Amino acid sequence: MLKFINETVDYLKDKGFNEPEVGIILGTGLGQLINSIEILKEVSYNHIPNFPTATVEFHKGKLIYGNLAGKKVVVMQGRFHIYEGYTLQDVTYPVRVMQQLGITTLLVSNAAGAINLNFKKGELMLIDDHINLQGSSPLAVRGIEQMGERFVDMSAPYNADINAKFKSIAKAHNITLHEGIYASVVGPQLETRAEYRMLKIIGADAVGMSTVPEIIVANHLKLKAAAVSVLTDECDPDNLKPINIEEIIAMAAKAEPNMVILFKELIKTL
């Protein structure tokens, strides 16, 4: 993997991706942050050596480099999921690449369903902790010790200082920002009523199909990491209605301006 990473990094450096400070992963339906970036370079995933290719229709599939709030950033416009047929190593490959390019902070966004029924769709949730229900780990691979410690501490996978800043920014801008636990499942099917009940019992406040592998690798690489979920639906097993993906995407777009404020204002403080 190291050989592949070096090839990818060399290609991107040749394209002008020079020493970004912050990496950002934009989740489902969350692309408006791009409008706030002074774009210096952008490359489609399918042009980058050894990079996976986004196969989900609402994921754009571009790596973007530019200036945001006075910092050099590298942004994944569209991420990868194991439900697309990728391995956990594929899914997290871009995090390793961004770290080798120079980032020290990783900010992640996702669209998620609200398990905690005190949280409403259209609101945001700051992830304080997570539950990995994807069945494996991106670190469960031969030779991982060549890229960092095998046994990674996860007592505080989300950076407390960044989370405190997020909460302060939300308060200053009158943004509803819940704090809770994110459960990551494989997908792509959504959950049954029984599964939603299980998730509530084990302590999840929201559920999605991403983020946790990226955060695990960020901790493996000793990056400061934080993540925000846009809550796109309410997962009430006693009043469950058939899912409408178009409505989920529309809800993500509606809620996204608040997430953009959080990310922009946070980056100013880094």
UniProtKB/TrEMBL annotation:
CC annotations in GO: cytoplasm
Span of domain Nucleoside phosphorylase: 22-268
Top-level taxon of the source organism: Bacteria
Keyword Glycosyltransferase: yes
UniProt xrefs under CDD domains: PNP-EcPNPII_like
GO biological process: nucleoside metabolic process
Pathway assigned to this chain's UniProt record: Purine metabolism; purine nucleoside salvage
Keyword Transferase annotated: yes
Sequence similarity: Belongs to the PNP/MTAP phosphorylase family.
PANTHER family for the chain: METHYLTHIOADENOSINE/PURINE NUCLEOSIDE PHOSPHORYLASE, PURINE NUCLEOSIDE PHOSPHORYLASE-RELATED
Name of the protein in question: Purine nucleoside phosphorylase
